Amino acid sequence: MTEPAKDRAKTGTTARQLAYLAPILVFVVMSGYFLWGLDPGRNPRELPSVMIDKPAPEFTAGPLAGIAVPGLATADLRTGQVSLVNVFASWCIPCRAEHPLLMDLARREEVSIFGLNYKNKPEEARAWLEELGNPYTRIGTDENGRIGIDWGVTGVPETFVIDGSGHIRYRHWGPIDKDALERTILPLIEELRG
Amino acid sequence: MIPEIGHFALILTLAVALVQGTLPMIGAARGNDTWMASAAPTAVLQLIFALAAFLALMHAYVTSDFTVVNVALNSNSAMPMLYKVSATWGNHEGSMLLWIVILAVFGAAVALFGANLPVSLRARVLSVQAWIAIGFLAFSLFTSNPFERMFPAPLDGKDLNPLLQDPGLAFHPPMLYMGYVGFSIAFSFAIAALIEGRVDAAWARWVRPWTLAAWCFLTGGIALGSWWAYYELGWGGWWFWDPVENVSFMPWLMGTALLHSAIVVEKRDALKSWTVLLAILTFSLSLIGTFIVRSGLLTSVHAFATDPERGLFILVLLFVTIGGSLILYAVRAPSLKAGGLFATVSREGGLILNNLLLSVACATVFLGTMYPLIAETFGYKATVGAPFYNLTFVPIMAPLVAAMALGPLLSWKRADLAGVVSRLKFAFLAMIAAAALTLYLQRGPVIPVLAMGLAAWLFAGAVAEWAGRIKLFKTSPSDSLKRAIGLPGSAHGMTLAHAGMAVAIAGMVASSTWKVEEILVMRPGDTATVAGYDYRLEKIERLQGPNYISDTATIAVTRGGEAVAVQKPEKRTYPVQNMPTTEAAIHTTVLADLYTAIGDPDGKGGQIVRIFYEPLVPWIWAGSLMMMLGGALSLSDRRLRVGAPKRKRAPALTEARA
User: Fold this and answer.
1) Which of B85, B206, B322, B363 is the most buried (most CB within 10 A)?
2) So what's the pLDDT on residue B655?
3) Residues 6+ apart with CB under 8 A from B550
4) Which residue of B281, B312, B381 is in closest CB contact with A47?
């Protein structure tokens, strides 16, 4: 056998050996992902918002006819006060579930709660608020859902925490429960107030 | 008392498995016959103890012994008896126990039917099998003890998840596990072969029936799960590419590849190290399947019992099992001698193509399933759904189906492609006819036209191969019949399974392309027309079931004034868990399912009613059943019959001579 031929044969064997090693290498990489994925703090169901730490999108939403609070616009979020923006609709059952908590929060007057009435007929929304009470100091109507798209709303209800400069700091997906309110949202509001 | 006996039996199972895992293995290494011989009785003993533990748990469920935590959390005294029994495995701990029992069943089967195996191979296979059992027994005993007690006992149990209170789902887990766990035998054989350093035709002949049996069960298990999703979730879909579904589908794809590559090892003594790798990967995917469902690693619509702590234990188990076997493979496989040369166009070549396409298809599903996890490590969230699989998985399956009709006609070593193609002229005509018919009926997109053509091609191709073997219409009918009877079971089985695949594909394509769905609000007396059928909502009444309250609608279905069916879809509420379920009403005809389900009332006297026209869905189940039966028929082949190889062949030969 000539020298180059021997060399080729040698690299051939190395390539073969490597091929036999490939499955275990792939598995080791996969295990790394598995191990990482087991972190108990991780929730695969949680969808993060791309809007976090960005200024709230520019919008002006007209008031809800028949309810005696003004409409909502971007400028209302830049007053130097921390605020909550709650996306709601009368057809949304989980909204009904979180509503008492919002009423309770409104009574404590710790933070101003703004509502964004999402894809909802004004008269239905009004009837809903008359039945359950109105926790919002401002309500913007978004009947066709265009504002919701700018905010990256994926489902109702959603709640955003906005700092005094109008930046979105947190998004809560789904109905707020006592746990989320007391462990996450209220401490965050305290922190933003600094 | 009985739960304690069960717990004790489970501990004994572990003790026996430890003996079975060490003694025969050392015996095989030292050539000690007595030690090797201990493998069979310990395997049987392991089954007896595992079965005792399982029956003890079932007893607790049947008698509603709520002092057992597991029973209290997953059963209720008002539940019908069938679900009390099936609740035994309808929870994490119980399903682990079922897994262990099935593992022991397969081990004992190798011990009992494996008398003809080389002594050292049998000893090693059973030892490897015992090590798998040790892992799962330790997992069960240390992290998921099903026999834990609580005092004081609650007055009544918390009920089984209502979605699981269903006959289809009562038998889905055992079937699926028989499939998953069945592949452990192929795995144990592969590891034993790597330790022995020998893979030959006899080895393949041994591995194949076990793989085939597991494959049949897995096919049945997946079909049953899909059927359940179809009628129970109320959305008329039968496959959602959900992670839980995918993890059962991946071992199926790999197992199908293994089934075919083992043929090459048996007949031609080639593809050895590849087949060994497939055996390892198939079982590894089964293990990963168990892991993902239980660890909360990926989000799914129907994951149960998620717990990261247990996940860590399983991860270690996986790492040892899969990592260990792949290292063994890397070290030992290069020394396996390759044999049997062949041309590209040959039966071997066809089977390699089959393996290649199935592996790539499996890799695609794997990537799609894992992608959300991978994406997350790079800091963003992603979900992978049907559009991904339609663009990747489907185009890989298309050439596979096209080649499936050709493959069985190819001869070993070197095949005459022109000759094969000419034998498929009828299949070609069938393909054109089916495509033309589809085009005539729908005049729509081109892909379903091609797909229906392919399904017809595969069906006709499978039938043509079978007809060719029995010389149908080329000789007298009685001669054909004689030939058909003389044909080995595996030949009939292959035809039936391949034809079943064609039938199932037609069903899948038709139902996903031409499904008609209407979601309406109806009041009693309203009618709706969907795909030519008139649906009239007669009434909605509230009925009381054994452990649920049901809102049952009565819907009269007519076509052109003629009565077709009366459907009674239900919406059930299970008060104990305060959870609703839908029970769809399905009227099956040969060509379509008429499917109705009811949703929530709209609060103004109306009811949300979902009406689906599901073309050819019954074909999916029929096709799956044909595949299962094909596998079973193949198993009945005496050449494959467990424990048969030498003794039974001699009389067969003399018969042939006489």
Assistant:
1) B206
2) 37
3) B542, B543, B544, B570, B571, B572, B573, B583
4) B381
Q: Tokens 């007595």 — which residue?
A: B34
Cα–Cα distance, B183 to B126 (Å, whole number): 14
Q: How distant is the alpha carbon of residue B477 from its chain centre?
A: 38
B308 chain-A contacts, CB cut-off 8 A: 38-40
Residue B526 DSSP code: -
Are B527 and B535 spatial neighbours (Cβ–Cβ below 8 Å)? Answer: yes
> Would you give the DSSP letter of residue A70?
-
**DSSP type of residue A185:** I
> What residues of chain B lie within 8 A of the CB of A24, using their CB?
323, 326-327, 329-330
Question: B407 vs B71, B425, B624, CA distance in Å?
Answer: 51, 15, 21
Is A37 a domain residue? yes
The arithmetic mean of pLDDT across residues A6-22, rounded, is: 67
Confidence of residue A39 (pLDDT cuts 50, 70, 90): low
Within 8 A of A53 by CB-CB distance, chain B residues are: none
CB of B322 less than 8 A from some CB of A: yes
User: In this structure, is residue A20 part of a structural domain?
Assistant: yes
What are the tokens at A129?
């608020």
My answer on whether A91 and A175 are in the same domain is yes
Q: Nearest by CB to B370, which of A28, A33, A48?
A: A33
Query: Of B470 and B125, which is predicted with more confidence?
Result: B125
Q: Could you give the number of structural domains in chain A?
A: 2
- A36 and A113 both lie in a single domain: no
Give the angle subtended at the CA of B426 by the CAs of B424 and B432, to the nearest 5°. Answer: 105
pLDDT for B145-183, tens place per residue?
A: 999 888 888 888 877 777 778 887 788 888 988 999 999
Same-domain pairing of A169 and A105: yes
Portion of chain B with pLDDT greater than 70, in percent: 93
Residue of B573, B603, B568 lying closest to B584 (CA atoms) = B568
Rounded to an integer, what distance in angstroms lies between the CA atom of residue B404 and that of residue B463? 12
Task: Examine the domain organization and report whether A184 and A155 are in the same domain.
Answer: yes
**Domain-located, residue A148:** yes
Helix H or strand E encompassing A127: helix A122-132
Of chain A, the end-to-end C-alpha distance in Å amounts to 80
Instruction: Select from B6, B12, B9 the least CA-distant residue to B68.
Output: B6
CB B649 within 8 A of CB B502: no
What is the mean predicted confidence (pLDDT) over A20-47? 76
B528 residue type, one letter = A
Sole residue written with tokens 């992978």: B384
Whether residues A68 and A133 share a domain: the answer is yes
Residue A75 and residue A33 in one domain: no
Q: What is the CA radius of gyration of chain B?
A: 26
Nearest to A37 among B327, B330, B373 (CB): B373
Q: What is the SS3 assignment for B613?
A: strand
Mutate: best of A20, A25, A29, A173, partner B, most B CBs <10 A: A20
Q: How far apart are CA B194 and CA B619, in angstroms?
A: 42
SS3 of residue B568 by DSSP: coil
Q: Which range of residues forms the domain containing residue A29?
A: 1-42
Q: CA-CA distance, B653 to B646, in Å (whole number)? A: 11
Task: Sort out which chain A residues have CB atoms less than 8 A from B374's CB and list them.
Answer: 33
C-alpha A74/C-alpha A85 separation (Å) is: 11
Cβ within 8 Å, pair B315-A38: yes
Q: Tell me, what's the ipTM?
A: 0.78
Q: Chain centroid to CA B542: how far?
A: 38
E runs forming strands in B144-275: none
C-beta of residue B509 within 8 angstroms of C-beta of residue B522: no
Nearest to A101 by CA among A161, A183, A192, A182: A182
Whether residues A121 and A89 share a domain: the answer is yes
Structural Rg of chain A based on CA atoms: 26
Say how far residue A54 (Cα) sits from the centre of its chain: 13
